[in-house]
Amino acid sequence: MKPFPDHQIHPDLRINSYGHYLRRRFGCRVSKVNVDGGFTCPNRDGSKGTGGCVYCNNVSFSPKATQPVIPIEEQMAQGMAYHRTRLGSEKFIIYFQKYTNTYASLDVLADFYHRALDHPDVLGISVGTRPDALSDEALELLTEIARTRYVCLELGLQSINDDILADINRGHTLDEYLETVQRAAGRNFDICTHLIYGFPGETREGFLKSANLIASLPVDSIKLHQLHAVEGTELARRYFRGEYRPLKIEEYIATAADFLERLPGRVTIQRLYGSAPLDICVAPRWGLKNNQMWYAVVNELKRRGTWQGCRRA
Length: 313
Ligand code: SF4
Description:
InterPro entries: ELP3, Elp3/MiaA/NifB-like_rSAM, Radical_SAM_C, rSAM, rSAM_horseshoe, rSAM_sf, YhcC-like. With 313 residues, the chain is of the alpha/beta class. The protein has a single domain (18-303), classed as Alpha-Beta Barrel (TIM Barrel). It is 36% helix and 17% strand. The protein is built from ten helices and nine strands. The protein has a seven-stranded parallel β-sheet with strand order 1-2-3-4-5-6-8, sandwiched between helices. Strands 7-9 form a two-stranded antiparallel ribbon. Strand 5 (190-197), helix 7 (204-215) and strand 6 (221-226) form a beta-alpha-beta unit. The radius of gyration is 19 Å and the shape is globular. Iron/sulfur cluster (SF4) binds at residues 41, 43-44, 52-53, 56, 99-100, 130, 156.
């Protein structure tokens, strides 16, 4: 008997988790392994902007093992060994995470992507980028790869509110994101969207509208996390000046559950938390591990008796 109307919803988790989606699709345990290709970002080098997004400090979301000076084959070997031993993973998706991983010449991109795909245990690649940094040539390269291998294009949107995007110095608009999603659709790869909750001036109701927007788009997957300030960022300076009030953990858990209830069951959930090393985390300092927040949100859905997509008509 199916406990939920949508078969994609995991009966214990009450959400469509990306890990279970990969298991359904590939028939084994699959892990994402982060690598650092040494890319930069057009919002930091001056071509789109300088200074970057107000919360950006790439140290906070990059595992220590991934340094651009280390050949990606070595980074992959280290990451795969870790996931094999710790989680029993059999196959891998190589995740180009740091900065903007489509922001280089086509030759450089093709070299990195194909070197990642060369390993027999690698199923495919996941490529993190900005909506305004995906050239037609890069899109064609990913489309070509997706003919035979798994590809996930991860687009950082962060907020659907243009005033917030301007305030956090994202350097792109909602329309640019929408246009890129349409360009990337129908190419046999997954599209993942990154969102953050907790920006200054953002309301819970305003944020929840993003679930309806995602529902209306060909988006396959979501990564959500709380806004947090880390050392050395403009957001941390705003916090010390009293201009940024961090979320309370209860607010975040409740809103994440509200968001999931409004999100269609077909959309897989890759992440519900952003962790930063405590030695550079300024606020909020919840100090949780990713899976602790994951289960806090799952437990909130259980407490409510709800599940992902239950509020959709
Ligand atoms: S787009 Fe990403 S890498 Fe670039 S400044 Fe913003 S958060 Fe940092």
